[in-house]
């Protein structure tokens, strides 16, 4: 099929087989490339600083910060993968078909691990707020490391098996040269939707609602016992201000995560992906990635709450 007059081909020398480019005004294209390149660069650099900070200073290696380390690792790789997505923004994939599939597989793995880490962060804050007296025994660094390892392992195994057909024959679903497409069967797509979106998000929202209820009840208890607190100096069973601050900060992380990720999954659930214009689809995808850019600005507030002994400071 011959391309329409005025369209541009990804590979002009392959006239009959090449895909067509998404043509934009020159100024718009340059602006998009600059903005997205800056986001990718800062996402990679800032998350690398978080990784180095937690890895280097042992006093920062608390259970909560280990979860933030896992989140920073996933965000770091998101920043690296954004470089490939930026090159694909005009609708043309200039690298090999194998690179295309590997990029998609890594994208799925990292996204799934990031969502799993969010669930672990919600559980961590739930235990810290709702059962603070047993937090140190229930949530230890070893248990957190094991949970993070299992989270990444399950993500790798599930998405590698789900995209096995694409890995065995890269480019099998491409309709033209310069296209980068992966196809997942219907059942695997439903399972992925439940495990990567509906299940985790239900758990996250439920746990933070429980945390909110407990915090409200504890604040009322503090107000009603304010006189006795002043006399005794402390009130056993009342949540520390530092734990409330940590829950609030990590609550912001989860809220930003939901805002950035929900539009992407909403498009998938409703099947509107085929109806979106290229610009709208790009916006949804890069809003999804923008979530990783915001974490390094929020996480240092959580790290600052940790004292030299590795516990949450007052």
UniProtKB/TrEMBL annotation:
Entry's transmembrane regions: 30-54, 66-89, 101-123, 183-216, 250-269, 275-293
SUPFAM superfamilies from the UniProt entry: Family A G protein-coupled receptor-like (SSF81321)
UniProt keyword Transmembrane present: yes
Signal sequence segment: none
Keyword terms, alphabetized: Cell membrane, G-protein coupled receptor, Membrane, Receptor, Transducer, Transmembrane, Transmembrane helix
Residue span(s) of domain G-protein coupled receptors family 1 profile: 46-299
Topological relation to the membrane, as annotated: Multi-pass membrane protein
PANTHER family: HISTAMINE RECEPTOR-RELATED G-PROTEIN COUPLED RECEPTOR, TRACE AMINE ASSOCIATED RECEPTOR 19P-RELATED
Similarity section: Belongs to the G-protein coupled receptor 1 family.
Protein name: G-protein coupled receptors family 1 profile domain-containing protein
Name of the gene encoding the protein in the UniProt record: LOC115412758
């Amino acid at each position: 099929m011959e391309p329409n007059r005025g369209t541009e081909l990804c590979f002009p020398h392959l006239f009959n087989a090449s895909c067509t480019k998404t043509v934009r005004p020159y100024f718009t294209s340059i602006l998009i490339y600059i903005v997205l390149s800056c986001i990718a660069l800062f996402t990679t650099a800032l998350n690398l600083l978080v990784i180095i900070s937690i890895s280097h200073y042992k006093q920062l290696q608390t259970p909560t910060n280990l979860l933030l380390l896992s989140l920073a690792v996933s965000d770091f790789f998101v920043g690296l993968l954004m470089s490939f997505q930026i090159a694909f923004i005009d609708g043309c994939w200039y690298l090999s078909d194998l690179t295309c599939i590997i990029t998609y597989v890594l994208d799925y793995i990292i996204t799934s691990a990031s969502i799993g880490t969010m669930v672990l962060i919600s559980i961590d804050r739930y235990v810290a707020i709702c059962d603070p007296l047993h937090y140190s025994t229930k949530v230890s660094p070893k248990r957190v490391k094991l949970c993070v390892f299992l989270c990444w392992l399950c993500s790798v195994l599930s998405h590698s098996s789900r995209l096995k057909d694409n890995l065995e024959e890269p480019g099998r679903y491409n309709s033209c040269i310069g296209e980068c497409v992966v196809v997942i069967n219907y059942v695997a797509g439903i399972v992925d939707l439940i495990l990567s979106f509906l299940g985790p998000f239900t758990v996250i929202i439920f746990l933070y609602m429980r945390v909110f209820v407990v915090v409200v009840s504890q604040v009322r208890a503090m107000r009603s016992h304010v006189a006795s607190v002043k006399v005794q100096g402390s009130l056993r069973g009342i949540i520390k201000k530092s734990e409330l601050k940590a829950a609030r900060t990590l609550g912001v992380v989860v809220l930003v995560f939901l805002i950035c990720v929900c539009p992407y999954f909403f498009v998938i659930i409703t099947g509107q992906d085929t109806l979106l214009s290229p610009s709208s689809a790009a916006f949804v995808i890069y809003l999804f990635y923008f979530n990783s850019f915001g974490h390094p600005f929020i996480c240092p507030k959580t790290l600052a709450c940790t004292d030299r002994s590795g516990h949450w400071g007052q």
